[in-house]
Structure formats: C-alpha cells, structure tokens
Amino acid sequence: MKCSICGRESALEEKYAGAPHSLMSVYNSDHLNLRDLEIYYCSACGHTQIPAHISEEYYEDYSMGSFWGASFKKTREQQMERLATLAPKCERFLDIGCGVGHYLELAKKYFDEVYGVEPSITSANNAREKGYSIINDYFHAGLKFESGFDVISLIEVLEHLEQPGGMFTQAAKLLNENGVMIVEVPNGQRIIEKRLYYNLCTDHIQYFSVTSLVVMAQRAGMYVVCVQEAADPNLLEMYVKKPAKSRSTFSDKRQSALARIISQISPKAKVAAWGAGAESACFLGMLEGKVQIELLFDSDKSKHGHHIATIPIVKPTEEDVGRFDTIILFANAHKRQIQSQLQQLGYTGEILTLEDS
C-alpha cells in the first residue's frame, strides 16, 4: 500500500480483528458493527493508515464531535488565541468541517467574517440556525468564495480522508499571503507507539505523525510554524503559514537595508553599535567602508576587552554611550531589552535597528 502522505511503499504492520466500524451505526442498534483491519506503516515519514471501508455518503448525516466538553473547549480557545496572533489580519476565517459551528463561535470573537463548510446536512443546518454562513457540501476545488482567507482551520477532518494531502493543498490555495492554517488530528504517533487499540476504528483511516504532518505541509508549499501535541496529548496540532512570494534577492535586501541606514545617519555623527554576537559580523560586513563604527557595546562580560575587525567590544556605561550621536542595534532578538538599558543609561541620541529592513 502506498503511503498517502509521502508516496513511499508502506508495510503491513498488523492484521487487527474486531475494530469498530461506522461509529454512527452503533447508536440505537442492538449489536456492535465490527470489522477486521489491515494496518500499514510508512517508515519514511512515520505515517500509519488503514484501507478505507466507509463511503463518502456516510458523512452526509454525521454528528460525531457535536458536543464539546470543558477541556476540549479550553484547548480550542487556546488555539484561537494563537491563530489571531499569527494571522496577518483578523478579517476572514474559514472552518472546513465546521460541524455545528463550535469553532466558528470562538472565531467570531476575533475575526470580522466567519464561514464554514460542512457535508452533514444536520450539522450544517444547526450551524446556520446560529447565524453562520455555511456551505453544505464536501470541501472541493469547485467551491467558490468571494476572496481568500486570513485563517483556515481543519479540525479533526484529515484523518477521515483517503487523500488528506489533496484537501490540505486545496485549502492552502485559499489562504491570503501570509495567511495561517491550523490542522488538528488524532495523535497517530502516540496511538501507534503506545498501541492504543481503543483509538482504532474505520472512521479514522489516517494516523499522522509529526513528520508526516510536516511532509504534507511542505509538499503544499507551506511554511511550518509549529507542530506539537495539543493540551490534550491524544491530539496533534500544526500551525502553518502561506509564505509571501519572494520579491528580492539576499543582495537586494542587504542593499536596501544599507541605503536606509545611511540615509538616517548624519555625515558627521559619531556612531557605535550594540551587539557583538554572530549577527554583528554580518552587519559590519555590510557597513564596512560606508559607516564608521567606533565601539561595540555588549552586556556579555566575557566579550569585553576583545574586538571584531579592530572595533573594541566594551561594557555599556553612561559615559561611553553618551559620547555617540547614533547607536545601531545589531542584536535584533534583544531590541526591547537594549532600548530599555539605553534609556536607563540616560542615552538621548538616535537608536537605529536593522530588523525587518
């Protein structure tokens, strides 16, 4: 069996007897519906899958997951807060497989417009009754939307699909530039490692690992922000971002940064820099012969008394920082801390940063 994520050959891991089949069928039934499974494992990406035994029509009146307990809701609230922070804008939100609209209810606190796609007619109607705009259909390339989305969610959807990568890739196409998508799936890595037999059923045919989630995202051209166990360790969550199209080369960006810095420095200004770490060599190489740096300030005592390209590295003192008209921050990661230190030292000159230039 070919791995549905990376395409490599998966090996038969186990023949497993008596797994629950079609979970919705057990309600109001006099007997359990069981089926034997073949479990396949891909050693290349750590993905596990079973052959599909359920038709697409099964999900047209599906209601599993329509109730959220307190712990589930807390996990999803944390996700939504993070999505709102990562999103380029909080305007348009799409939940694929939205069920009765629980995630949309959380999203409307942060986003101007929220939309859902849901194949179950019962769940879709429940969400509509709450006032949400819902497309009652399976998610596919033919669905039409007015414009792209800043955030898209795929919460416990991909584990049901024969080709999860196809849906993920199609969803990614609907993201705006720098848009964010969250994927949540059962923690297949944990299920397989701990042999959690009670998590095997024919409703779930894909069991993702951290690696297989990353492979799927990268094949769709997405930038992976984070993959981790959710607050509930039985779930994996992945945050990805649609990268902006590169409009410049490294050389172009460095030249642009140099031009901006030079334009902000007076010709007769005395200039120092703060930061003698790895980035400082890059910045000094860019500024060499164009901006004269007299001193490098750094809070790390072990660097004091040394130099980089003949420029002394010294402890920042009120007297020394006060000698300079301009201080360029080389330590981008500590910008706020350094600005606060300069303020405490009474520095009133100009502070320049190369960050995001």
Automatic annotation (TrEMBL):
Keyword entries, A-Z: Methyltransferase, Transferase
UniProt keyword Methyltransferase, yes or no: yes
Source organism superkingdom: Bacteria
Entry's EC annotation: 2.1.1.-
GO molecular function term, any single one: methyltransferase activity
C-methyltransferase domain boundaries: 252-347
Top enzyme class: transferase
UniProt key word Transferase: yes
InterPro entries, per the entry: MeTrfase_14 (IPR013691), SAM-dependent_MTases_sf (IPR029063)
A GO BP annotation: methylation
Gene3D superfamilies on file: NAD(P)-binding Rossmann-like Domain (3.40.50.720), Vaccinia Virus protein VP39 (3.40.50.150)
Family matches, as Pfam families: Methyltransf_14 (PF08484), Methyltransf_23 (PF13489)
Name assigned to this protein: Class I SAM-dependent methyltransferase
Species per Swiss-Prot/TrEMBL record: Paenibacillus terreus
